[in-house]
Recover the amino acids of this structure.
């Protein structure tokens, strides 16, 4: 029996190259979930093209990156994490940011998000996590979206640096999010794959991807950050293009078969 994994593209709505890459990969069956920056500059324009595709469309909650020139500044990730664990995040500030993002998603997509995760995994942080779960209960009742939880998947053969980063991300809130989601009757993926340093080009990404597929277990989630172009010439944009090329390659089909894996939306019975 094949293992079902969610392959989730992050940052839809950040720019047109990212959106085009994810729409193309979703059409090829290479993505089964797309995480949307609802206040991103291209989200509203491209949401209608995402809506009919056979993917879960999620809200990628953002508290660290001002996505438009006229947007109010947001704290750096380190500052946000420190303030979250120090109990210094203002509940009204969190609620206002969440409400704007949920409203924008629903206005563009015409429906609630299928799931919730966080840009740079901020949805799991203390303070934000509690306010998010309260919003989901108030807004959607018992039929709420599923949640991405970040406990690291199996790390057999994963380089030390990548394995360490995966464990750090999980340590910032995965256990608490999973526990509280279960209490509220919300589904989550099993474990998270796809963590690395966003560098190394196509060859290194292909090697890592094969390793993640080898480690995958049923209902794991593999995150990715593809884009079709790298117009700004930045290292991150080049790596996004490398991810797109690898995910679009016919070889991916072979790697999936060898590892007994198939790309799927999150099964209804997942916890």
């Amino acid at each position: 029996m094949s293992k079902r994994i969610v392959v989730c593209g992050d940052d839809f709505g950040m720019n047109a190259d990212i959106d085009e890459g994810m729409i193309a990969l979703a059409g090829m069956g290479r993505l089964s979930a797309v995480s949307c920056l609802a206040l991103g500059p291209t989200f509203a324009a491209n949401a209608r093209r995402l809506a009919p595709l056979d993917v879960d469309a999620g809200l990628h909650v953002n508290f660290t990156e001002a996505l438009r020139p006229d947007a109010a500044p947001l704290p750096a990730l380190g500052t946000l994490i420190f303030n979250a664990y120090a109990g210094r995040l203002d509940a009204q500030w969190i609620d206002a940011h969440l409400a704007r993002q949920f409203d924008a998603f629903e206005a563009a997509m015409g429906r609630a998000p299928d799931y919730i995760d966080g840009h740079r995994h901020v949805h799991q942080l203390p303070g934000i996590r509690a306010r998010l779960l309260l919003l989901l209960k108030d807004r959607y009742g018992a039929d709420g979206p599923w949640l991405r939880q970040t406990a690291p998947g199996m790390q057999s053969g994963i380089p030390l640096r990548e394995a360490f980063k995966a464990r750090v991300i999980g340590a910032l809130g995965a256990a608490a999010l999973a526990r509280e989601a279960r209490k509220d009757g919300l589904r989550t993926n099993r474990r998270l794959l796809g963590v690395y340093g966003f560098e190394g080009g196509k060859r290194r990404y292909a090697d890592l991807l094969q390793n993640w597929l080898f480690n995958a277990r049923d209902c794991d989630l593999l995150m990715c950050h593809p884009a079709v172009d790298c117009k700004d010439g930045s290292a991150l944009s080049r790596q996004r293009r490398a991810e797109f090329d690898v995910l679009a390659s016919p070889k991916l089909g072979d790697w999936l078969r060898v590892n007994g894996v198939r790309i799927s939306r999150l099964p209804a019975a997942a916890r």
User: Anything to note?
Assistant: The CA atoms of residues 193 and 222 lie 4 Å apart. Residues 91-109 form the longest helix (19 residues). Strands lie at 3-12, 33-36, 56-61, 115-118, 146-147, 192-193, 221-224, 261-263. The two ends are 19 Å apart (CA to CA).
